[in-house]
Amino acid sequence: MRGEVVVEVLSDVPERFAPGSRLMGVREGRPGLTVEVAASRPHKSGAVVRFAGSEDRDQAEELRGLWLEIPVPRCRRRSPAPTTSMSSSAVCAG
């Protein structure tokens, strides 16, 4: 896995992980960072994703435990607008 991470997908919108998609990576107590999907493919009930700038195992390991969120304007709304500005999508399982 050259710079790839296994992602537990919590979204029912597979194009969230299309190449070029930008997601917000968050961890409790740390500032968020924007990550861009470079490549992805289905994997069991989730996906294997490589993010731009993550070229080797060590860089991918830094993403372990990161929650990936999508800005609300890009989310499909099926119910009243959420009370927060982000919508959870997935977590990097490592």
Descriptive report:
The chain has a 6-stranded antiparallel beta barrel with strand order 1-4-3-2-5-6. It has 94 residues and is mostly beta strands. The radius of gyration is 13 Å and the shape is globular. 26% of the residues are buried. It is built from 1 helix and 6 strands, in the order E-E-E-E-H-E-E. The termini are close together. It has one domain (4-74, 84-92).
Give the N-terminus to C-terminus distance in angstroms. 10 Å
Q: How many strands in all?
A: 6
Beta-strand percent range: 35-45%
Molecular shape: globular
Uncertain regions spanning at least 5 consecutive residues: 80-88
Query: How many H/I helices?
Result: 1
> Into how many domains do the coordinates divide?
1
Instruction: Determine the mean pLDDT.
Output: 79
Q: Give the strand order of the largest sheet, numbering strands 1, 2, ... along the chain.
A: 1-4-3-2-5-6
H and E string: EEEEHEE
Radius of gyration: 13 Å
Specify the helix fraction band.
under 10%
Largest sheet: 6 strands, antiparallel, barrel
Given helix and strand content, the structural type is: mainly beta
